[in-house]
Amino acid sequence: MRATSAGLVTLALISAAYAQESNADLVAKLRAAPAHTDRIALLTDNQFVFDFLNPKTGITTGSAGHTVSANSENYPAVIGNGVSMTIGFLGPCGLNTPHTHPRATEINFAVNATLRTGFLAENGARFVFNDVPAGSVTIFPQGVIHFEQNQGCEPAMFVAAFNHEDPGVDQIAQRYFGLPPDVVGATLGGLGVEEVAGLEAKIPNNVAYGTDECLKRCGLTRPDPQLTSQRQPRNDGNVLPAGFSGPLAPSSTPAKAATTPPASTATTGSKAAIKGMRGGKR
Ligand SMILES: *[C@@H]1O[C@H](CO)[C@@H](O)[C@H](O)[C@H]1NC(C)=O
Hints:
- By secondary structure, the protein is an alpha+beta fold.
- The protein is built from eight helices and twelve strands.
- The protein has helices at residues 5-32, 36-42, 172-176, 181-187, 193-200, 212-217, 254-259, 268-278; strands spanning 59-62, 65-70, 84-90, 94-100, 106-110, 115-120, 128-132, 137-140, 145-150, 156-162, 170-171, 208-209.
- Helix 4 crosses helix 5 (193-200).
- The relative contact order is 0.15.
- Residues 251-282 have low confidence and may be disordered.
- 2-acetamido-2-deoxy-beta-D-glucopyranose is lined by residues 111-113, 152, 154-157, 277, 281.
């Protein structure tokens, strides 16, 4: 019998759904296991290994780089061990845009470039600002707003470890501007909803192009527009004014759709950039 392309697509969808279900099944078994030895018995040797250079899941892509995360969602070996990891592949001047991890403290190792970092803890705390040279680490306490920018004109890598198997990530600009536009406008001292919608439309995906100072020093131009698919999806509660469109609310979980845009939304440019950054490191 001849396989039709529709048939192949159906098969691919079924096997993707099966993989997801069996992963959830495994996670449930690991969580229910009475002892650590039982969890080890549930996993094969190679399920303890996660390949950050050739990942199939956990990828977040912007115009200036990407990150890859291994946590309880896609790396079941962390379950019961209280840790997870994200590797950042930042292009020249790439900025891991301000975000928080609601459930974890992060310790971040700058592998081969200086990272400009900053964090803000709760109301009343002072701002902490550092250039972290290659070979050094810095720490972002649980819940603080923080960012890291590659200060170099070459691609850079960082290694971020977390003390939670499901640290979570909350991108500040993408989420803040996803609140009801009139509330955002009022919070900004009375901006109109159309101004709010206009600002929101520009919010780039993470990893984004960084500061003007860096771009100028490296002879780079910020692309306009950058990819903007990580903005908060809209529903009846946070609808934009007529004439402005935001990402549509997906029927499933908005947070996941927001942090992991489907490959089809990535531009050819960013795919090429990822390829370039991964080149020769298999
Ligand atoms: C840093 O490491 C990454 C990953 O191996 C590589 O793509 C990048 O070119 C390196 N950058 C420098 C400045 O060595």
